[in-house]
Amino acid sequence: MRHLILGCFLFCASADAQTAPTTAVLPTAGEGGAAVDRLLEQLAGTGKLEGPAACRRRLQIVTTDAVAAARRDLARSREDELGMRRAAAVSGARRAIERLLLQRVHLVAPLELVQARLALAQALLLNPADRAQAQATLAQLHRQAPGWAPRPRTLHPRLLAIWRTVERGAEPAAPAPADLHWIAARLGATQVVWLGRGGDRLRMAIFTAATSTQQIQSFPLVQDARQLRQQLCQMLAPGGICPAANKVPPGGSARTTPWYRKWWPWVTAGAVVVAASVAVSLAITLPSEQNDDKVDLLFRF
C-alpha cells in the first residue's frame, strides 16, 4: 500500500474513585503498529497507563457474542456465494457488518470487520455485478480499518483492482463521537483518545465523556523511535495522560546510564581489591611474634 499506516490506537482513560485515572491503549490493525505499541508499553506501569494487551482483553470480553454471531453470518454468506446465490450472500454479509458495527468491534478487532467488508464486496460482484457498491464497501473498509492491506494473491483480481483505486484516494478517518462515547460508557472511561497515521502525519481525536466533546489534531510524524516516544508524550500531555516521569525534555535523552557503565563503581571495587590483597600479604609475611596470629585490616579511601 502506498501509504504505510503506522497504526491507529485507542486510548481508553478510565477513572476509579480510589486511584488516579488510568489510560488503556488499544491498537488497530496496521503495519508498523507494533513499534508504537512497544513504546506505549514502556509508558505503562506508572499507574496512569494500561498496556495495549490489557485493553484489548477488556474490550474483547464485551464484544465476544457479537463476533461469534457475525462469524456464523459470514460462514453462511460464503456458502451462498459459492452457490451463486447473490441476494442471500449480500444479505448475510450485511447482517454480519451490522452486528460488528453495533458493538464497535472495528475499534477492538478491526480484522473481523475487514473480513465482513470483503465478503460483502465479493458478493456484490456476483452477477449482476454492482461495482459502485463494491467500491463504496472497500472505501468504508479503508476508513474503518486504517493500515490494513491485502496480502499478495489473496483477493480476486476484480476486487484487487477496485482496492487499488480506493487506497489511493481514501484517508483514515477518526471514529465518530458516538463510537468513542460507547467505548467510554462500556469501560467507565473519562476520556477516549484515538491515534492514526495518514501519510506522514499522526492524527489524534480526544473524546471527553464528561462534556461529550471531541477534539481532532494532526502532527508531523517522526521516524526515530526515541523521538516518537517523546512525541506521543507531548501529544497526550494536554489531557494529563502522559506520565511526567516518562517525559523527555527537549534535547534530552529518554534513557539513563546504567550503574555498571559509570566509572566510580569500578574504581571503588578496584581499590577494595588492592587494599585487601596488601593486607593479606602483610599478614602472611610478618613474623608470628610480631602479630601474635592476629591481623588488623584497615581500609582507607
What does this protein look like?
By secondary structure, the protein is of the alpha+beta class. Among the domains are: 119 residues, no CATH class; 33 residues. It has ten helices and six strands. It has a six-stranded mixed beta sheet with strand order 3-2-1-4-5-6. The chain is elongated. The termini are far apart.
Task: Provide the fold topology.
Elements (H helix, E strand, L loop, with lengths): L7 E7 L7 E6 L5 H11 L5 E2 L1 H31 L3 H17 L7 H15 L6 H14 L12 H13 L7 H11 L1 E10 L2 E8 L4 E8 L4 H12 L26 H23 L2 H4 L10
Parallel strand pairs: 2-3
Antiparallel strand pairs: 1-2, 1-4, 4-5, 5-6
Helix pairs in contact: 1-8, 2-3, 2-4, 3-4, 4-5, 5-6
Strand order across the largest sheet: 3-2-1-4-5-6
CA-based gyration radius: 29 Å
Report the end-to-end length measured between terminal Cα atoms: 65 Å
> Which structural class do you get from the secondary structure elements?
alpha+beta
Average pLDDT number: 74
In brief, what are we looking at here?
The protein is built from ten helices and six strands, in the order ββαβααααααβββααα.
Structure characteristics:
301 residues; alpha+beta; 10 helices
